[in-house]
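Backbones bend. To wit:
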Amino acid sequence: MKTKIASVPRVVEGSNGDWYVYFSVKNPLTDKMVPRKVYEGFKQCETTAQKRVWGKKLVAELIKKLKAGWNPLDDSEKFIYKDETDYELLSRKFNATKKTVKNTRFYISEYLQSRKNGLKPKTYSTYQSKLRIYIQWLEHAKFGEYDLTEIDNKIILRYFDFLIIESKLDRVTILRYEQILKDYYNYLVKKGKINVNPVFDVVRPPKSKDMAARPINDRDLKLLLSIIQDRNPQLYLACMFQYYLAIRPGQELRFLKVKDIDVHSYKVVVDDVNSKINRRTVDMPVDLAELCIKYQINLFKPDFYVFGRNGVPGIEPLGQNTLRERFNKFRDELKLPKIYKFYSMKHTGGGKLLEAGLTLEEVKNHFGHKSIETTDHYVKRHFGNRNSRIIHGFPKPH
């Protein structure tokens, strides 16, 4: 399975004279793309032509290093492997080790193979990434060749100290690391390789400031949608899909195809490849169906992605962050709160459903939640426990 670890470097001709090569690379600790700028060598170039020649050379060099597995966030260049925890290349030393020693690296690779068919590709990639970091730390701390039974709770707690104190990961990310590592060691317990799971008593960092997207109030929503509809119809349609269908802006929205939309039966099918849960059919409000007909979405080829690269359905979907970046640009232009995010359209639609009197069960089904408890938590987090009798019928003090 191919995993994107970096974007293609490109030369940026700065208007202020500061030229640089720009690219982004995946941080192996957080799985998030981090932007990088390389200014090296440009200031020594006297003319624009020299800068362009140097930029082309620098881009070629960076591409070559990235393809070989180099990560600028890890100067020791250790994230380069061949087994289930690894990228592409590994030093000859470990190639030999894997053939003779069944250490943590061997069993983590075996564990990942056992989970591969039961996990979605994106989830499997997360497991790979988190366990890759664990192996990297063990080897750096000289525990890589320890027997499985020698990896005790003290070593585990040292590892989490590294994640929390040195890497400064937040509470949610730490919980994910703990969950995956605990599952791996449960696997070893079941295989009879160890007697006790060493992952326990992990100290979790305090909750970080909640920066999750929030619903948009009516005044701001009207202002924002008005300018988006006028200047970027494709983004406006994407906002409406989130608002009306509660479609997640990542894979669900980006990979939606024309054939998934039935404007006559008022339904949209979200396939298993795109969804967190199994394939589901979402009711399509009449207003959204009419908007799709107005944009002539149903006239494009069935296999075209609804949100293509040229502002209309096409053979290639938009980039992962394109819609979010466009949304943020309009939001910032209007000087609206940064807590408003592209994902906010989904939450805003959910709030309107609650205001319209839909039950939690109806909201659960529309949002594709697995349980009513998930919906209840969602409602309390984003909208609180609202009471119209208190809002409109609170007794006056006299």
